[in-house]
Amino acid sequence: MLSQSTMRRSTHRILAQSPQYQVCRRLRSTKSHYHDAALGPTIRPPVEVSSMARLPTRFLLRSLVLTSLMTSKMFLRPALALMSVLSTSKSALLNPDRNIALNKLLRWTVYNHFCAGANKKEVSRTVADVKKIGYQGVILGYSREIVLDHNEQVSGDGSGATQYSKKCYEMVDEWKNGTLETLQMVGPGDFLAVKLTGAGPISVDAMMARQPMPEVMAKAVDDICIATEKQGSRLWLDAEQQILQKGLDDWAIEIMRKHNKHETPIVYNTIQGYLKGSKANLDHHLTLASQEGWTLGIKLVRGAYIEHETRSLIHDTQQDTDRSYDLIADTMLSRRMPADNRDLPFPKAALFLATHNAASATKAIATHQNRLLASQPTIMLECGQIQGMADELSCELVSNYERALAESSAANLTVPKAYKCMTWGSVAECMGYLHRRAVENRGAVERTQHMVNALRHELWRRITG
Ligand SMILES: Cc1cc2nc3c(=O)[nH]c(=O)nc-3n(C[C@H](O)[C@H](O)[C@H](O)COP(=O)(O)OP(=O)(O)OC[C@H]3O[C@@H](n4cnc5c(N)ncnc54)[C@H](O)[C@@H]3O)c2cc1C
């Protein structure tokens, strides 16, 4: 934390260079999506520097072309239909890993923009490129989604208990090895994104039935957590649809209880702010962490499955989701225990803000920074966006971090680190993931248009010198 005198001397300077100013300065000129960003009254403009100047030109051009296309309904509608077919088709002709022409077409367009690569060499290059841009770290996940023929899934032993085939157990091994391989592609300080459903039916069935983690899964997860800690990395558990999420939360708590022993968590669970029950879920996590003495790691998202969920579980409007998201971030950053457990101490905790929404990022960063500057207790905050999305926000966050670092020592920083989240796998393996990204862009037209404007502005700046 900052000492009082350092804080007073540098308060104005830090605020002028602060994310809330930097982000809000840009956001003031945009419409409703950002209208409620919190601005401090004494903030003055710093020297004008384009934070997107850090993007390589080839990256900028590809991003501009693709993002522009995504704002066009005429393009997006057939593109979505095509991606949906490609992500589910069993035809060799429509399999991008078998059809070379299709593979090349997808690579030149969406794959290279949204995915990290198909093998260690490609992924390492992408990770190095991203870090060269200035991100403080990456989050890497393996996209492979396991599909099993139902006939080879289970066999009965006459007792009524489910007996899984050898193939099901091999899937858990394959998943563990794929996850450990992914870990080797990131470095200390980076995150591993773990999808527990990727381990196949042994995992999915138990999660859905809200049973304890099967032994074979518990052993695999233990090995992954131990390797992650040994490497100096961290991991997060991706959130799923509600049919799985209650079981997944139980497992996540069990894993955090076992592995989050130090100040900084090794394991983060994901909370989806669009759920009406998300605040109560956070309170449950906080209470258990406090009572049992482990460190709580939370990655906060809005939620990606609105089109496939029971709608009544999700907040009625986007505004309600926004409020819920901001409340959860504020509860953690302000270290507020639930009303019925106020007497319990706030546990050791950390928050990862996973969002493309600049207003939410701005609010949370402002709260965090104001608390640090006022010497009020808070928790570690980090931010991240998905590769190929919201680059204007990501670049602002990176620039603010770099400016703050130039002004202060790393230990005294009041701005969060910025990460880029990426997925790797062959083109065919990534089709489901790419389809989800396209669906997300369809639902965020205003933000996508904002990104196009920022990219155009940066291109024009380069052309005109
Ligand atoms: C680094 C990272 C990791 C992620 N990991 C996961 C994950 O593990 N699991 C997961 O589910 N998602 C994950 N997501 C996706 C995330 O949940 C959102 O879908 C996505 O980020 C868009 O939300 P946003 O916060 O960026 O803000 P915005 O784009 O401003 O908000 C869009 C979101 O608001 C909500 N919303 C939209 N319309 C309505 C409505 N009418 N009523 C109620 N709510 C509405 C939806 O959640 C929608 O996705 C991740 C995102 C990031 C950046």
TrEMBL record:
GO terms for cellular component: mitochondrion. The keyword Cell division does not apply. Converts proline to delta-1-pyrroline-5-carboxylate. PANTHER family: PROLINE DEHYDROGENASE, PROLINE OXIDASE. GO terms for molecular function: FAD binding; proline dehydrogenase activity. It comes from the Eukaryota. The keyword Signal does not apply. Keywords: FAD, Flavoprotein, Oxidoreductase, Proline metabolism. Its EC number is 1.5.5.2. Belongs to the proline oxidase family. It catalyses: L-proline + a quinone = (S)-1-pyrroline-5-carboxylate + a quinol + H(+). Its cofactor is FAD. One of its GO terms (biological process) is L-proline catabolic process to L-glutamate. Residues 126-449 form the Proline dehydrogenase domain. This is Proline dehydrogenase.
